[in-house]
């Protein structure tokens, strides 16, 4: 009978038969080994004995026709093929959990968890306001925020450890697995504490700023790349005295403790200036930095809570661009 099938149908049947051999417990075990990198711990995590987990792993590798892990005295380490399978196993598990949450939502408001990656210096205003608005409408949601550098958070998103990323990602070099949506193009400004010698200056120049102590995002970030390019274009050198940090809270404290400069999104800087915590310097950076973006997996299916947060982020960004809060309309410090 199979000999009479069209070759295309035969190939489709073979692919389906190969996929059908995989069970949910196979995916769960791969995810656990990838997370723990220890077969005994992975077996305990999945409520199996170690011999049973070992047999299942060998069966998975047999189905695929290739090894997925390097065995050693320190445990199991995934090879490139193993990393690929772990990533897709984690995605499928997340999709199944998302389907469960979607079914629960039919009986009431949005529930479940949303894991958000945030480059805080980029998303410090829009993200918390969006979270507050969403939770006021759907208090059953649980939202967790993980801060970090954009490239590290993008890796976590690819691995299925995050649902979305809010930050400034270089769209020109974005991995093909990620979908990037521009939220806003807010410019950055240079700031210092209120007692800095430059705080009351009507104008400062690049050659004066380059010798100062700075707090900047790490060199691996798109923001830092464009910042350095601006100085190289202007005076053929970049600041050398730099503290690398993407933590807004740390940067705020450090700005008060020492004479240094930093860069912040304009709305964030205006808010802090209104509180008398810093001054915006008269140095034009312009809209040279990458746009603030929402980043998701291109082939992922965002569950209801994630979709609701994405829409809230869009609405908040539009509102702040068209109708900024009244306390942010002036750059005069109190």
UniProtKB/TrEMBL annotation:
SUPFAM superfamilies: Periplasmic binding protein-like II, Winged helix' DNA-binding domain. One of its GO terms (cellular component) is cytosol. It comes from the Bacteria. Residues 22-79 form the HTH lysR-type domain. Coiled coil: none annotated. Signal peptide: none annotated. Pfam families: HTH_1, LysR_substrate. GO terms for molecular function: DNA binding; DNA-binding transcription factor activity. Keywords: DNA-binding, Transcription, Transcription regulation. Belongs to the LysR transcriptional regulatory family. This is HTH lysR-type domain-containing protein. It comes from Alcaligenes faecalis.
């Amino acid at each position: 009978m199979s000999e009479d099938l069209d070759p295309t149908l035969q190939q489709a049947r073979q692919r389906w038969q190969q996929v059908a051999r995989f069970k949910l417990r196979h995916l769960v075990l791969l995810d656990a080994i990838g997370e723990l990198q220890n077969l005994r711990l992975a077996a305990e995590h999945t409520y199996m004995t170690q011999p049973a987990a070992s047999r299942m792993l060998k069966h998975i590798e047999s189905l695929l026709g290739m090894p997925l892990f390097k065995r050693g005295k320190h445990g199991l380490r995934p090879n490139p093929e193993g990393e690929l399978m772990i990533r897709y196993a984690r995605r499928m598990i997340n999709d199944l959990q998302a389907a469960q949450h979607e079914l629960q939502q039919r009986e009431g408001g949005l529930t479940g968890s949303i894991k958000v990656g945030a480059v805080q210096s980029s998303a410090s205003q829009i993200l918390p306001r969006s979270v507050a608005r969403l939770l006021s409408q759907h208090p059953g949601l649980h939202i967790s925020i993980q801060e970090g550098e954009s490239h590290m958070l993008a890796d976590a998103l690819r691995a299925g450890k995050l649902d979305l990323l809010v930050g400034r990602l270089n769209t020109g070099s974005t991995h093909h697995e990620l979908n990037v949506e521009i939220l806003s193009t807010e410019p950055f400004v240079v700031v210092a504490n209120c007692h800095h010698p430059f705080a009351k200056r009507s104008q400062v120049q690049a050659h004066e700023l380059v010798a100062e102590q700075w707090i900047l995002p790490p060199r691996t970030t798109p923001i830092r790349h464009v910042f350095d390019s601006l100085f190289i274009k202007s005076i053929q050198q970049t600041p050398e005295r730099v503290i690398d940090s993407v933590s807004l809270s740390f940067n705020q404290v450090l700005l008060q403790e020492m004479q240094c400069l930093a860069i912040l999104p304009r709305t964030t800087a205006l808010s802090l200036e209104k509180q008398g915590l810093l001054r915006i310097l008269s140095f034009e950076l312009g809209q040279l930095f990458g746009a603030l973006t929402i980043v998701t997996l291109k082939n992922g299916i965002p569950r209801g809570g994630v979709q609701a947060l994405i829409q809230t982020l869009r609405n908040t960004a539009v509102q702040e661009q068209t109708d900024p809060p009244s306390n942010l309309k002036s750059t005069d410090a109190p």
